[in-house]
Specification:
The complex is a heterodimer of chains A (345) and B (325). Chain A is α/β, with parallel strands linked by helices and 345 residues long. Chain A has twelve helices and 14 strands. Chain B has 325 residues and is of the alpha/beta class. Chain B has a single domain (4-308), classed as Rossmann fold. The chains are: A alpha/beta (345), B alpha/beta (325). Chains A and B meet through helix 3 and helix 11 of A and loops of B. Bound molecules: thiamine diphosphate (TPP) and magnesium ion.
Chain lengths: 345, 325
């Protein structure tokens, strides 16, 4: 199969869906500029022009509400935020309107299939308000679907699913995934939400991850394999709906669970996965669950602090060694997937 | 003794020189690992407004923070150390270029999310008034941030409650690469928005430091006297790329002609021209200031580089008070 980068896959999904459905439009700050939201909206702008790839004023709150209204009236908005942190200004429309629209009006008057893409920054001192991963925040609210594609194929397929489905969707993309290359189907084939993926099969410990952390987990698994520890990496692909079955089956097999995330532990993705396992396969666990997540502070800017702040493959290795009863072992440090990222933004 | 006019020029030259030198280091070394928005070309708005404030007045800004910080008297060494991510930085390496603060100087903070410090300044001004203090809060933001809902909400509240706040809009015509024309309806202005909310407002040539200073003096007095908030819309222009030390003149979103005409209207050159009669030696003075400030900023960079990074053991320090964790 031919290959694409992650950002090209998003671009292709956007263009193909827009070709097939003229109700789709892209809205976001600077989506029409040379950078084109990391290249993801450039081709769409070239093909469809400013009437369908709309440069929005800096008005995230109204933009989200406008998207909801347009969706209710039959359009299919795809809203893009070059930093997911800006979505906090859109919380009201996404959480109080989009998530609740179908249900609140009785469930039989149609929905508002607004699709919102948010990009997670990291590295180069992006700092406290430009590097947050709010996938669990949005996944908290019934009525939204939240997806975190980890591969180019999923980046395309899940955007296709979002743009052809009937539910409001939040897609969270870690910018460090954009250069990643992988096989991607040429046709716009949807990847359904709620169906996880075994990114790597193993028998000793299950690492459940989303987005960037899937790749960090794969690196960790490689290193641990050399030590004779067989790691199974589960990519949930979407947080809501969540594929509980694939998580529980894997843990039932391995008896050990590490959950890895790019956000905080409290009330987050790692907490949810641990709860699912505790509810459904409590007797499978042969060791306590370990969570790999952010330390309990906002993100610092200073380089050494930033390096210490973001978990990576080596953090996952340590957690896996711990649940396998080898807590004291020290393995060579692994580079992050994001290593080598350059500024100024 | 410098006249008040030449002092304004000197302050602009200092900011220009500091930013040019820092931009070179930023580009050449790649050691200041923090997204940085330079104000080169926009010095008159920073200097003209801050000149009429007292240290007890508070100034806020958005992401384009260095010029207001320095104009308000923010410590240069602490700024440079912050850019290098050092523990001695004004935000202890936690905040970076977009989150700087110097409370002693009355620079009350900058923020990376558009519009945040518009509301924060209204809150500070309101707090001053509630405490019966004759202090004023001022807040710098771009015309792009004036599209955020919080701008309108803040204007309205400030007008209703006669908050002693001065809104300082640096209108450089662009929000990253989006021109005004695609964001604001024809015939409207930021000033007009403020007026519609009942906020006294004024449009001023933002590259004329003396005009800015005079307008700001009236505005600050008005606010200080409890007569209500004021908005100043200051027309100016950014010379460099939106973020980072480079030029973006080939990015196609603004014409070379437009850039050159604004650069020809350099606020420093214009101010020097305006005082040449009363201060015939102004050009030599500007040159000597440049040399002096170059030495100052190079020395600040040398010192910052020699300083320690924060200890990673202290990663969490500052998130909560120790007892409250
Ligand atoms: C809420 C929010 N939305 C978007 C951004 C991204 N952003 C950072 S600076 C900027 C442009 C702002 O333009 P303006 O306010 O005119 O300031 P200028 O950069 O021109 O000084 C944008 C869109 C942000 N930081 N915060
Ligand atoms: Mg601007």
């Amino acid at each position: 199969m031919r290959t694409l980068t992650y950002w090209q896959a998003i671009s292709e999904a956007t263009v193909q869906c827009m070709e097939r459905d003229e109700r789709i439009f892209v809205a976001g700050e600077g989506v029409d500029d040379v950078a084109g939201a990391f290249g993801t909206t450039k081709e769409a702008f070239r093909r469809f022009g400013p009437s369908r790839v709309v440069d929005m004023p800096n008005a995230e709150n109204a933009t989200a509400g406008i998207a909801v209204g347009a969706a209710a009236a039959g359009q299919r908005p795809l809203v893009v935020h070059v930093r997911a942190d800006f979505m906090f200004l859109a919380m009201d429309a996404l959480v109080n309107m989009a998530a609740k629209w179908r249900y609140t009006y009785g469930g039989d008057k149609g929905g508002v299939p607004v699709v919102t893409r948010g990009v997670v920054g990291r590295g180069w001192g992006q700092g406290s308000t430009h590097s947050q991963s709010p996938h669990a925040t949005f996944a908290h609210y019934a009525g939204l679907h939240v997806a975190t594609p980890a591969t180019p194929a999923d980046a395309k397929g899940m955007l296709v699913q979002a743009l052809t489905g009937d539910t409001p969707v939040v897609l969270i993309e870690n910018r460090n995934l954009y250069p990643l290359v992988g096989e991607v189907p040429e046709e716009p084939v949807p990847v359904p939400f709620g169906v996880g993926r075994i990114a790597r099969a193993g028998t000793d410990v299950t690492v459940v991850a989303a987005s960037l952390m899937v790749h960090e987990a794969e690196r960790a698994a490689e290193q641990l394999a050399e030590r004779g520890i067989s790691v199974e990496v589960v990519d949930v692909r979407s947080l809501r709906p969540l594929d509980e079955g694939i998580i529980c089956e894997s843990v039932a097999k391995t008896g050990r669970l590490v959950v890895a995330d790019t956000s905080w532990a409290r009330y987050g993705f790692t907490a949810e996965v641990a709860a699912v396992v505790a509810e459904h396969v409590p007797h499978a666990l042969r060791a306590p669950v370990r969570r790999v997540s952010l330390p309990d502070s906002p993100a610092p800017v200073s380089h050494p602090l930033e390096e210490a702040f973001h978990p990576n493959a080596s953090s996952i290795v340590s957690a896996c060694l711990d649940v396998c009863g080898e807590a004291g072992a020290v393995l060579p440090r692994l580079a992050s997937v994001s290593a080598g990222f350059q500024g100024p933004f | 003794m410098l006249s008040s006019r030449t002092r304004l020029i000197r302050d602009m030259v200092r900011i220009r020189t500091v930013e040019e030198v820092l931009a070179d280091y930023y580009r050449d070394e790649q050691e200041m690992r923090t997204p940085t928005h330079f104000s080169i070309g926009q010095e008159a708005t920073a200097v003209g407004v801050c000149a009429v404030t007292t240290p007890r007045d508070w100034v806020y800004s958005g992401h384009r923070s260095h010029a207001p910080y320095l104009a308000k008297g923010g410590d240069l060494e602490a700024l440079v150390a912050e850019l290098y991510g050092k523990e001695a930085g004004c935000s202890r390496g936690r905040g970076g270029s977009m989150h700087v603060m110097d409370q002693a100087a009355g620079f009350a903070g900058s923020a990376a999310i558009l519009g945040e410090m518009i509301a924060a300044a209204v809150g500070a001004g309101w707090a001053f008034a509630r405490a019966g203090e004759r202090r004023v809060a001022l807040t710098y933001f771009g015309e792009g941030a004036a599209d955020e809902g919080v701008f309108f909400e803040s204007l309205n509240f400030a007008a209703v409650h006669r908050v002693p706040v001065v809104f300082v809009c640096e209108n450089n015509q662009y929000s990253i690469s989006s021109p005004l024309g695609v964001r604001h309806a024809p015939g409207t202005s930021v000033r007009g928005r403020a007026e519609a909310c009942g906020v006294r407002s004024l449009a001023v040539d933002g590259n004329d430091v003396f005009g800015v200073r005079d307008a700001a003096r009236d505005a600050v007095e008005h606010a200080r006297d409890g007569r209500g908030p004021v908005l100043l819309e200051l027309a100016t222009y950014r010379w460099r790329a939106h973020v980072g030390p480079g030029l973006d003149h080939d990015h196609g979103y603004r014409s070379q002609e437009e850039i050159e005409s604004w650069m020809a209207g350099c606020p420093i050159v214009r101010a020097a021209g305006a005082v040449r009669d009363e201060t015939p030696g102004i050009d030599a003075l500007v040159e000597s200031w440049r040399a002096e400030f170059r030495r100052e900023v190079h020395a600040a960079v040398d010192r910052a580089k020699a300083l320690p990074f924060p200890d990673t053991a202290g990663l969490l320090s500052g998130a909560y008070l120790p007892a409250a964790r």
